Each structure stands twice: as C-alpha cells, then as structure tokens.
Amino acid sequence: MNPDALQILLVGNYPADRQESMQRFADVFLRGLPPIGVKVELIRPEIVWNRRAGSPGIAKWLGYADKYLAFPKRLRRHIAASRPDVVHVCDHSNSMYLRNAPAGRRLITCHDLLAVRSALGEIPQNPTRFTGRKLQTWIQSALAGADLVVADSHATGMDVARLIALPPSRLSVVHVGLNHPYRRRSDPEIAAALERNGLQRPYLFHVGGNQWYKNRPGVLRIVAGALATMAAKPRLVMAGKAPTPELRSLGNRLGLGVHWIEDCDNDTLECLYSGASMLVFPSLLEGFGWPIAEAMSCGTPVLTSRRASMTEVGGDLAYYVDPADERGASAILASALDDPDLPRRAVAGPEWVRQFSPSRMLEQYVALYRRLAPAAPRNG
C-alpha cells in the first residue's frame, strides 16, 4: 500500500454493550477500505472495570467508567502517536469522543436520533429516565463538535439539521451499505434451511429486536388481522432477539403459532428471506431499515411503514401501511399477498437495492474523508 495513502482511525463501540449492528458497520470499513488504497484501523473501549461487575446495575456503571473515563485517555494517546488523517466515530452515541480528536479531522456517522428525540419528549411512547436524558443531552451537544456529520438517510439528516446546530456544509447523507452480500438462494438451499429450522412454506417473515420502535406487537396484530380474512393462512416467522414473555403470550392469544428464531446467521437469514412470501416490517421509526433492503436483495416483496426512512429504502417497490392503523394495515397485507403485481416487485428488488451496496457507501465516505484530509496535514 502507498505509504502516503489516506489514513483513517475508526472509533468503534464498547464490546460489552453488544451492539452487533454497529460492529458490522465498522467491519464494512475494515474489510473494504484497504483494497481501495486507504489505511484503516479500529480502536474501541476495552472491558477493564466491568470485569469486576457482580450485578447488571453495577455492570452499567462500571461500563460507564470504561467508556467515559478510561477510554478517552487511551484514544488521545493513540491519536497523538498515529496522527490519522481523519478520526471517524462510527456511532453517533459515542459523539463525546470527538473532543479527543484534533479539529478538522472529526467525522461521525449518525444512524438515527431516536434516543435524543425520546429524551426531548418528542416520542411519548418511549419515555426516558433522568440519567438517560442527561446522557442524550451530552450526545446531542457533542455532535455539534463534528467537522462532518454523515447521516444514514435523508430522514436522519433532517433530524440532525433540526436538532444539532450545524451548517449545511458540515452535514452529508450517505445511505448505509448492506453488511452482507444478500442474494436470492436456490430452492434446494431454501428447502434445506427450512428443514433445519422445522419450517415449511408458505410463511410471512419479520426480522427485528424487542426495541419499542420495531413494533413487534403490531406485527402480530397486523398479521392476525390479515389471516382472519384469508383462506390460505401462511405461518408467521419472527427472527431476531428472543421474544419477551408478553410478546410470546400475545402471539398465543392471537392464535398465530409464531415460529421464533433467535439470532440466526447470515446464511440462514438469506434462505429465510428467499423463502418468505413477504417481509412484514411495520416499524414505527427507523434510522435506515436494513431488513427492507436485505429482503429485496433476496427477491422477496416487502410490506413496511409509510414513514421515513423506510420509504427511502423501499422506493416504489414496497407496499406501505400506516402502523397506527392496524386494521387498515391488515387489509393491505391480505390484498398485497394476492396482488398480480407482486412477482414484478419481487424480481425488481435486487436491482433497486444496488444503490445500497457497501462499495458505493465506501466510495462516498472516501470522498468525504478527502474533504477533511487537506485540513489535517499529517505532520501537523
């Protein structure tokens, strides 16, 4: 590699927080930048004090010590020694680390401002405690110290422009790239994966965790309402984090017989997307909405919410519902499954989501790195 190549320092997330999506985001840069001639390394907080934790409550506060007391000193030393051209904080929730990087070299990715908005009282269904409000206020104010904020979507960019005092020249939008090359799997591969998981077609599919905005209870009620009007009754398969007891109970009361799959790997997920009749994804809010693009990559039709940023990702190919109108959403789901245009939308999906490729994302980020690099001479 050219010794004068652009040098980027990624600041990643604390391992004990188990934010897998943020780790996958950083991994895209670690894998993808060196082949295009950019030097890159990752630094992140280490688990030090938290090793002594004896309870979840104590672990939370010892984790804060690892993240906010120990790590900034280490980060400053590392930056002084390595002198990267740009310090890229990969997650806006770590915006407080920006102050440790020299002015002119500070770039941060903002995936969404849902927690900040909740702390401000803009999202009543997600109340925030006192300490949470203080943390989100810190995150919000620290974001203003970035030389460049990169939002995952235009919807998130609008939130940044509204809530962070940044001039337009310091805000860019780069759609996040898929962290795995999802593709349509063959029928034998799908059949084998379904057999391993005790499934058979037809089924509806949902991917997500138990966060309030993923609207898992709404998924259950919308699907139950649709099935009540349909002669054929595909099963509902929900992949992601283990369901809460309340969620499992709701599925049982609705008579759905939900098949839960916890934390499946990419190979299984690809096959499950490919075999599904439809991805049902009526989230309340999303910073981007990876499952929409993942399903479309696999040639699977999508039903999602007519809300930003899901409309950015789904384009003209997704079926849209109002998640607050569950009866109406059920009717649209039942109608979509019988829509003559369904096959066309499914076939067009992989071409549409090419715009969310990791290579395109990396090219756009490198252009932004180069915007900052002239202001950050390596010997300065």
Describe the model.
With 380 residues, this protein is an alpha/beta fold. It folds into 2 domains: 7-177 and 358-375, Glycogen Phosphorylase B (Rossmann fold); 187-354, 3-Layer(aba) Sandwich (Rossmann fold). 43% of the residues lie in helices and 14% in strands. The protein contains 14 helices and 12 strands. The strands form 2 sheets. A 6-stranded parallel β-sheet has the order 2-1-3-4-5-6. The chain has a 6-stranded parallel β-sheet with strand order 9-8-7-10-11-12, with helices on both faces. Helix 7 (216-227) crosses helix 12 (326-337). The chain is globular and about 65 Å long.
Task: Write the topology of this structure.
Layout (H helix, E strand, L loop, with lengths): L6 E5 L8 H13 L6 E5 L12 H27 L3 E4 L16 E5 L3 H6 L10 H14 L4 E4 L2 H10 L7 E3 L13 H10 L6 E6 L7 H12 L7 E6 L4 H9 L5 E4 L3 H10 L2 E4 L8 H8 L4 E4 L4 H5 L4 E3 L4 H12 L4 H11 L5 H15 L8
Parallel strand pairs: 1-2, 1-3, 3-4, 4-5, 5-6, 7-8, 7-10, 8-9, 10-11, 11-12
Helix pairs in contact: 6-9, 7-12, 10-13
